[in-house]
Amino acid sequence: MSDLHDLYQETIIDHSRRPRNTGVLAEATHSAEGYNPLCGDRLNLQLKLENGQITGIRFQGAGCAISTASASLMTEALKGKTPEEAESAFQKFHSLLTEDRPPAPDLGKLAVFSGVREYPMRVKCATLAWHTLRAALRGEGQSVSTE
Amino acid sequence: MSAQAETRATVADRPVRLAERLQTPAMFDVNRIREDFPILREKIHGKPLIYLDNAATSQKPKAVIDALVHYYSHDNANVHRAVHLLSARATEACDRAREKARGFLNAASTNEIIFVRGTTEGLNLIAQTYGRQNLQAGDEVLISGLEHHSNIVPWQMLCNEKQARLRVVPIDDRGIVPLDQFEKALNERTRLVALAHVSNALGTVNPIARMIEMAHRWNVPVVVDGAQAVPHMPVDVRALDADFYAFSGHKLFGPTGIGVLYGKEALLEAMPPFQGGGDMIRSVTFEKTEYNVLPYKFEAGTPDIAGIIGLGAAIDYINGIGLDRIAAYERELLEYATAAFSQLAGVRIVGTAPNKASVISFVIDGAHPHDVGTILDREGIAVRTGHHCAQPVMERFQIAATTRASFAFYNTTSEIDALIAGIRKVQEFFS
After folding, report:
1. Least confident of B2-16, B56-70, B412-426
2. A3 — pLDDT class (breaks 50, 70, 90)
3. Is residue B3 pLDDT above 50, yes or no?
4. Residues B406, B410, B412, B415: is their CA dihedral positive or negative?
5. A95 burial type by CB count under 10 A (0-12 exposed, 13-18 middle, 19+ buried)
6. Complex-level ipTM beyond the 0.95 threshold
7. Nearest-CA neighbor of A113 among A71, A81, A82?
8. Active site amino acids of B
9. What is the pTM of this model?
10. B173-186: per-residue pLDDT in tens?
11. Residue B166 burial by CB count (10 A; 0-12/13-18/19+): exposed, middle or buried?
12. Residue A145 maps to a domain
């Protein structure tokens, strides 16, 4: 079972049980809905962009432990960041999940998802929130799907 | 069906402990049967494979694998084409398999056995031929609330094309299609009824013979999606009076890519062809094509010859064990599993119809099915997690997904014990 603990690290379990930054964001400027048709998970993400900075970010929706924790940790990581910084964080996060390399040093808490690499079927769970973020920032305003 | 009920009653009345009974060689020697399936010796993450995803696809006995290897090693040639010996062997092998499929369903004639890619193609074939020929604006196609997407979408496409209405009989809290509501939904506009014999997501067995009888009172033909039924129970299309009956070979311990569509000969005769091409024609000029006789009229192009032969081998294998015995053994597995699940706190079975195939769909408090699936996989246990291609069923129970354990006759009570232990591990993880 030790390898399962690499996937479900304590921080992930904690954020899946008590996700941060959930609910409706007043005065949201951007939003998008993410959908993973494989498991039926849905996620609604709202952002407030002010002077080129993400000053508010919240999500709603139910998913597996990995997708919920990923959304929760993403919202924590992106407050105060610019859209460019957010996009750069997504790319580093994606490399963490798919490439066999040490995590980028500035990923911070997001590095707890390094165990997902060993579970290719779960990469989409971890990236659902981030794909939704990208759609929201691009103002696509429509539902994005992991498929 | 009554023979099956009789077996069940006899078995249930025995005052012997269930686990002991299942290990009695005279009853059902599951350990010997397991030896027929090479894949059951696989290790998954270092642990013995416990394969409980049989409703998605079943494992293949050596007899089926050998039939495929033998065909490609000794008999490979195209069918119905050449005068050479290999072509004759391949053609005869396909003919024999068609006769086996006829016997398996107790169809009146091999003219009524159409080889298709699987249940999905069988259902689409009916929608595109019978459906397009017989449906008009304002007509209705009737389905139930527990259908697989493959028994929803082809009818939806057809109804959109014809401005017809797709009518759905909802299921109740146990996952049952209430017969009275089904009966009420039939009317003078109903042109076709399409129903699952057994639900893939919940395991509910529909009282399909009675439903067919009700539809026939309105002279409406019934299409039965038999994908989840044929691996678990004897099916007699004439006793059921089914008009169409489709199943997939890969769920019946045969290869992927091959399935059977049964249709009553008179209906098939009156239907236009499905696809055009070789084999389905009698003569072709640029002006006019004369179509071939049944069943070839519906089989354009070179068929999945190896698949057909493999399916024939699977049917032989199943007949060798006997579907009555399989049904009785699986009923015991289901009872054992249902009893074990009822001892688990925080676990709820979704789909509690009294008449079920050996399927347990469940949800665990505080644990998402995807996480359940990952943790069980590390224990070597393969289950399906998700919406099971039946999103309307999930919606009915207001859940996004379930975990589904589906049993075959090679599964054992000790594998169910391992599943229960795995679920306890999941609960420890997320408690």
Report:
1. B2-16
2. confident
3. no
4. negative
5. middle
6. no
7. A71
8. 389
9. 0.91
10. 999 999 999 999 99
11. middle
12. no
Q: How far apart are CA B36 and CA B30, in angstroms?
A: 10
Q: For residue A59, what is the domain's CATH number?
A: 3.90.1010.10
Both tokens of A36, joined, read: 């993973």
- Whose tokens are 């527990």? That residue is B146
The predicted pLDDT at position A143 comes to: 61
Q: How many beta-carbon pairs under 8 angstroms link A with B?
A: 52
DSSP B87-103: HHHHHHHHHHHHHHHHH
Judged by a CB distance cut-off of 8 A, whether residue A42 touches chain B is yes
With an 8 Å Cβ cutoff, are A41 and B400 in contact? yes
Other CB atoms within a 10 A radius of the CB of residue B220 amount to 21
Is A62 a residue whose pLDDT tops 50? yes
User: What's the gap in Å between the CA of A57 and the closest CA on chain B?
Assistant: 24
For residue A18, the enclosing domain spans 2-139
In chain B, what are the domains?
2-35+323-430 (3.90.1150.10), 64-319 (3.40.640.10)
For β-strands A53-60 and B47-48, DSSP reports them as unpaired
Chain mean pLDDT for chain B? 93
The CA-based angle B188-B194-B197, given to 5 degrees, is 130
